[in-house]
Amino acid sequence: MDIALRRMRADDIPQVIEIEKEAFSPGWVGTPFRRELNSRYTRFLVAYHPDGIERDEPGADEYQPRSGAADESLWGRMLTGVRSAFGISRHDEVDDLAGYVGIWLQGDQAHITEIAVREELRGRGIGELLIIGTLRVAYEQALAEVTLEARVSNFVAQRLYDKYGFNEVGIRKNYYADNREDAVIMTTDPIHTAAYREKFATLQENFLARYGELRIQI
Q1: Comparing C-alpha atoms, which of 84, 78, 191, 90 is closest to residue 142?
Q2: Would residue 19 count as lying in a domain?
């Protein structure tokens, strides 16, 4: 199955609301997506199935490896079989949108407000792709770091964030309305340092080697 990222559009809202309702508790206050789409301080990315997308589509940001990372023939082999990279046949009937991420652009931070993937598609790298897209937005906007909150009990999510250099910097007590669970505040190291850029480049190459090409429009 091809999975790509692009900016959310107004006609995506019904599917995004479905994903939001599935991912979060009944006590979750729904996001006013239509209003937020018109704000210059927010950015929403959606993960979708781009059947029929042309490789030279205007604005497509296709990641390339660092010089010397792999020879041409190896890279070509890595890019084959993209449609099955996530373990789903292209003939399977699935919804167009697989997940989304909401980002607030605040001062020198990109703050992930919510991130969700359809339940049946979890564990296939889509959440990681959304994190990669978020970091690219932060670079595009010349922001210094990325931050978020995660449930203290959500160890799976915390491991993913830790992989991308998010560090625990504090706790928000009783943050979640449904059960008064605390939230872990996690923030990256400054993303414009040479060390973080190198880490992020390596993580993208590892993702590419495992899942296929990266197609991200931010």
Answers
A1: 191
A2: yes
